[in-house]
Amino acid sequence: MIEQFLKRIAKTLDQRRIPYMIIGGQAAIVHGRPRVTQDVDITLGMDTDRLEAVIASCRALRLKLLPENPRKFSEETQVLPVRDAQSGLRVDFIFSSTPYERQAIDRATVVRMTRYPVRFASAEDVIIHKLFAGRAIDLEDARAVVLRQGARLDGAYIRKWLRSFSDVVEDRRGLLMLWEQVVRGTKI
Q: In terms of DSSP bridges, do strands 116-120 and 109-113 run parallel, antiparallel, or are they unpaired?
């Protein structure tokens, strides 16, 4: 069911030329280990100035817009939350056109789901997102990705972006130290 759902979303976004990558728990499953997740997080490589294209995509997919005022909510939070009535799954469309997100979307991993290419954040970008979020489940996801991907990971890429977040995170060394702890804890 989830593969068919992700395929439908990917196909609709592709048809409307909306750059995207699936992140969060769904991407952690692709690169790490199976786990339960009740939502789908999708980063869009654009700002809210193209919100109408996303809303049109949601309508085509029969996804229910959750905010009472989608424009205001999206502009304030950079997120458009929707729900699939059939499956009950929540989808968060996340607007972002930062240099990091643009590069992450460009290097997304393509996974064929029911014979259609669906774009997921790369293993490295899943780790970066998870370390940045920093919750216990996120750190477990990062460890699982490191364990499964091992030496295939581009550690230099991960360190480069963690360092670059110094203007967003007070203690950028904290992110780098967290990365080192994840690597040491998984013994790659």
A: antiparallel
List the end-to-end C-alpha distance of the chain, in Å, as a whole number. 34
With contact defined as beta carbons under 8 Å apart, do 48 and 75 qualify? yes
Instruction: Give the tens place of pLDDT for each residue, 22-32.
Output: 999 999 999 99
Rounded Cα distance, 106 and 115, in Å: 21
Rounded Cα–Cα distance for residues 141 and 33 (Å): 8
Domain boundaries, the chain: 1-121, 123-188
Q: Amino acid identity of 178? A: L
Q: Assign residue 43 a region (left: φ > 0; alpha: ψ between -120 and 50; beta: otherwise).
A: beta
pLDDT tens per residue across span 29-52: 999 999 888 899 999 999 999 999
Q: How far apart are CA 148 and CA 160, in angstroms?
A: 22
CATH topology of domain 1-121: Beta Polymerase; domain 2 (3.30.460)
* Main-chain dihedrals φ then ψ at residue 22, nearest 5 degrees: -85, 130
